[in-house]
Automatic annotation (TrEMBL):
Residues reported in the UniProt entry to bind ATP: K50
Recorded catalytic activity of this chain's protein: L-threonyl-[protein] + ATP = O-phospho-L-threonyl-[protein] + ADP + H(+); L-seryl-[protein] + ATP = O-phospho-L-seryl-[protein] + ADP + H(+)
Keyword terms of this UniProt record: ATP-binding, Calcium, Kinase, Metal-binding, Nucleotide-binding, Repeat, Serine/threonine-protein kinase, Transferase
Listed cofactors: Mg(2+)
Family: Belongs to the protein kinase superfamily. Ser/Thr protein kinase family. CDPK subfamily.
Recorded GO MF terms: ATP binding; metal ion binding; protein serine/threonine kinase activity
Full protein name: non-specific serine/threonine protein kinase
Lineage: Eukaryota, Sar, Stramenopiles, Ochrophyta, Raphidophyceae
Domain Protein kinase: start-end pairs: 17-274
Enzyme Commission identifier(s): 2.7.11.1
Enzyme class (EC, first level): transferase
Length: 324
């Protein structure tokens, strides 16, 4: 990819891609399944309305593009090219039609530690690559972990680098960002932070992959953030009875309050639970599915409520403005 291509013709993207059915739609963008006319390959084209973007949003989009064009890894969604046309940006990206990680595994009748480990391995290897390139993702969560197809052997891809940051060597970040439940304690405390925040999020994801619910949860964000900052969590019975001590040991090295003592991505890949194949990894986790179904439903309901609240705030703000 060679940066953002600027065009004066609003339909320039459609010279190269046949836009098909809508895969998703939000307030600011629409994603369409598209076909490259040159070689008949399938891509997801994200159409972003310029009128919906503030100047800082446009700058953030260009930063995201700059980061994505640096990345080339099997577990990271590929950005092919970007068109800057009057009215819209068009981001041509790899298709991920297999849905979210959590939605996929909750449908499994039989689910084991080995499967949880394989899922985590894909996420960690993608983040290891990002960190080696001095890039922090800063928003690892279920919605951003996607399967590239419906195939049983589909690949997990890290998506949405909208909050990602390219760091200079040894530089720190200060912006408060992330998603409640997955955000690292140092961000909540307003401290300068580094790429270690991604490893905390991976610890939360690992915990959920093994029992079906998160280590920290409260409908009230203030209470949730107090839990996270305390760093206290447990492995309640009976949900963790079949899970190995090695798996718990890995989580205990990720959900660490001190970022400097927290496992790196390479540490995770070297850990015995990830690196070795043990027979107990194939033990079915019988309570996982029901717990995950309940958590997934609550998570999506809460996300919907949050979206409605934001929309109401925006509408209220618009109504309060004096016409000019």
């Amino acid at each position: 990819m060679q940066g953002i291509k600027n065009f004066f013709n609003k339909d320039e993207c459609e010279k190269y891609y046949k836009l098909g059915k809508t895969l998703g739609q939000g307030s600011f963008a629409t994603v369409k399944l598209s076909t490259c006319k040159a070689d008949n390959t399938r891509w997801a084209v994200k159409i972003i309305k310029k009128s919906s973007l503030a100047p800082e949003d446009e700058d953030a989009l260009k930063t995201e593009v700059d980061i994505l064009e640096r990345l080339d890894h099997v577990n990271i969604v590929k950005l092919k090219e970007v068109f800057d046309c009057p009215g819209n940006f068009y981001m041509v990206m790899e298709v991920c039609s297999g849905g979210e990680l959590f939605d996929r595994i909750v449908e499994k009748e039989h689910y084991t530690e080995a499967e949880a480990r394989d899922c985590l391995l894909s996420v960690v290897d993608g983040i290891r690559y990002c960190h080696a390139e001095n890039i922090a993702h800063r928003d690892l969560k279920p919605e951003n972990l996607l399967y590239d197809s419906d195939s049983p052997d589909a690949t997990i891809k890290l998506a949405d680098f909208g909050l990602a940051k390219l760091l200079d060597e040894d530089s720190m970040m200060h912006t408060a960002c992330g998603t409640p439940g997955y955000v690292a304690p140092e961000i909540l405390e307003g401290r300068a932070y580094g790429i270690e925040v991604d490893m905390w999020s991976i610890g939360v994801i690992a915990y959920i992959l093994l029992c079906g619910f998160p280590p920290f949860y409260d409908d009230n964000n203030a209470a949730l953030f107090r839990q996270i900052k305390s760093g206290r969590y447990d492995y309640p019975s009976p949900f963790w009875d079949e899970v190995s001590d090695q798996a718990k040991d890995l989580i205990d090295h990720l959900l660490v309050l001190d970022p400097k003592k927290r496992f790196t991505a390479q540490d995770v890949l070297n850990h015995p639970w990830v690196a070795k194949t043990e027979s107990y990894h194939n033990t079915h986790l019988p309570r996982f599915r029901d717990a995950m179904k309940e958590y997934n439903a609550r998570r999506k309901f809460r996300a919907g409520i949050m979206t409605l609240q934001v929309l109401r705030m925006l509408q209220s703000s618009d109504e309060s403005k004096t016409p000019t």
